[in-house]
Design brief:
By secondary structure, this protein is mainly alpha-helical. The protein is built from 4 helices and 2 strands, in the order H-H-E-H-H-E. The protein has a single domain, classed as 3-Layer(aba) Sandwich (Rossmann fold), CATH 3.40.50.
């Protein structure tokens, strides 16, 4: 298999999702994922489900813990939903001449 210096496509698309999952799981805080595209949000949640299922299959977390994490994730396409949050972490995909 050829090595590549660029991250996998999923990592480029969902870098903020990993941060959100850690916050929702390890810190147990509610997280609001923001994107201008509902389709992108749906795709991100589907990928989150895949990651959580993988952790369940490896017995890293229980199904109940995964459901609790998913329950802490909310999505929105407007910045108005952030008016009462304590802090914001911005993760933007960056293209360096690809």
């Amino acid at each position: 298999m050829a090595s590549s210096s660029s991250p996998p496509e999923a990592a480029k698309q969902f870098q903020g999702l990993g941060i959100a999952l850690v916050a929702a799981h390890k810190a147990g805080v509610p997280v609001v994922l923001v994107d201008s595209s509902q389709a992108s949000l749906d795709k991100g949640l589907k990928f989150a489900d895949k990651l959580l299922e993988k952790d369940i299959s490896k017995q890293k977390i229980t199904r109940e813990q995964a459901e609790a994490v998913k329950g802490r994730l909310a999505t929105t396409t407007t910045m108005d939903s952030l008016s009462d949050v304590d802090f914001v972490i911005e993760a933007i995909p960056v293209s360096l001449g690809e």
